[in-house]
């Protein structure tokens, strides 16, 4: 939502939130979901927060879905012509679908209901012309001001604040030039694991359905920048804007993304990235190993419970065939490696430890235990196990203490 889309009442200023249905329908849904609560329609309307408002024409470009609204206009017209018994698209959908929670039914792939048609209440003349409302998009010419290109994210450094986080969930809209494209999929399936996370999901909102908290954050930042400029603050570039907003005392976490960091990321990407099939249809991407992803047309909430390998909604797999590079040169094994710090691989996870003994094909390592992303500690009971040479990834400097008990591998090595 834009920076000007706020509403003030009793000196309380709030970001606008737009209704996506009529109050009468929302009241019916509320009673159906809360059968033990008896709230009259008038009381329900009176308790509506003042910042929850009906969308106007000027709000249409930033909220709601034109496709769904236009379908509603058609239903209303047919109802007014006494051809249908209801103007509600939800009720009409229930008449022609076996199960509204079934993907095949809603995607018109079900053999039982894909040929069903609405039952008309009377005969009609097909040549009769009627008029009904529709939202349309028009191409217009206009002048635009130069915009400062930068990136702001309401986020936290999970690896430092929440070291036990192992799975990351992204939720965003799905522009094909930014998020829903092969370059972003490649980075998602590679960088996420390099940062130490075990898995991640990326969920794309349907078109025109993603207006919410992220747009509200953007509106807050725009209003803050306008206020600074009106008070005489000069802002010439992205860095000036970033520093000015940081010093406003905002509780939002801001990050400045330099052009150099973007260039470095681009250089790390291969020259040719394979195209991911059905890119425009997918709404969820899941990665559990570097270079590999699962994708489906509909997001599955099994991922919330960390069941990341489910096959719901005809899940498909894709691999970028990333060739992993060795972290170090080939290790030369001999008595000199005893008492050296190393990183070993155990059931897919990595742990630091000290080599205590070596024989012809394996080493004995006293290992630390893991409590999160790059967080390790010495267990009360000594963990001493033999590992074959191939399980030793590399030698490292001693981990650095971050608390009285926890240690971390140097960040440049961990990354």
TrEMBL record:
Superkingdom of this protein's organism: Eukaryota
Protein's recorded name: Uncharacterized protein
Organism: Onychostoma macrolepis
Organism lineage string: Eukaryota, Metazoa, Chordata, Craniata, Vertebrata
